[in-house]
Design a protein that fits this description.
The protein has four helices and nine strands; from the N terminus they run αβββαββββαββα. With 215 residues, the protein is an alpha+beta fold. The protein has one domain. A nine-stranded antiparallel β-sheet has the order 1-2-3-4-9-8-5-7-6. α3 runs antiparallel to α4. The longest helix is centred in the N-terminal third of the chain and has 38 residues. The chain is globular and about 75 Å long.
């Protein structure tokens, strides 16, 4: 049996090859997942605007800028966030914390909402409260969901939108409405398999935006 010192270089080379292979396969998997989500989104994005620009941010995120957005949107961005499958340790840690592929729709409206309200799924990757966030009394909204409503908030409108989107997606992690930009932000997991088309999800978000903007 060779001494352990002699095995050191072989082990190091093996680890390097393992990491490189994982990185290549993880990147390939994310590109495949990302392209699949882009195809899914292409039916819903025309509800928001006429054209879309696409930019990959590394291998774990895709930013879609909405060009010439339709009212009630003044500006809108869609971000597809993928699990960091290309980095094994980071992927394992993130997945253990509940991270999954998800979509962010972030919009500024032609008129700012008149109130603030924030709903979160505390089990979601972006639903957890962080230090330094807005203070206030968070109310249990059933199950794992909490809500923070400012003065004059239309709670029925926001809760109704949350429930509707929750029934169409694999879960809503966050829905934020505020008078400052971004006026509206929604984080959700896309439906699995042959679930709802993206137009059935973007449509209710557009309807919510119209009511918030007073249109």
């Amino acid at each position: 049996m060779p001494p352990l010192e002699a095995l050191g270089p072989s082990i190091a080379i093996g680890l390097i090859l393992f990491v490189m292979l994982w990185f290549a396969l993880g990147t390939q998997r994310n590109v495949s997942k990302g392209n699949k989500l882009l195809r899914w989104l292409q039916h819903g994005l025309p509800i928001v605007g006429r054209r879309t620009t696409i930019r990959w941010l590394g291998s774990s995120a895709i930013e879609l800028g909405i060009v010439e957005p339709h009212a009630p949107f003044r500006e809108a961005t869609v971000v597809v966030v993928l699990e960091p499958r290309d980095v094994p340790l980071l992927w394992t840690f993130a997945r253990s914390r509940g991270r999954r592929d998800f979509v962010i729709i972030r919009a500024n409206l032609v008129r700012a909402p008149a109130f603030t309200m924030d709903m979160r799924d505390l089990s979601g990757w972006t639903g957890r409260r962080e230090k330094g966030e807005a203070e206030g009394e968070w109310h249990d909204s059933g199950g794992r969901t909490v809500a923070l409503a400012g003065p004059g908030a239309d709670e029925a409108l926001i809760r109704g939108a949350w429930d509707r989107l929750s029934g169409l997606t694999s879960g809503v992690w966050r829905l934020t409405v505020q008078p400052v930009v971004p006026h509206l932000e929604v984080h959700f997991r896309p439906p699995l398999g042959d679930g709802a088309g993206s137009e059935r999800i973007v449509g209710p978000i557009r309807d919510l935006a119209a009511k918030l903007a007073g249109e």
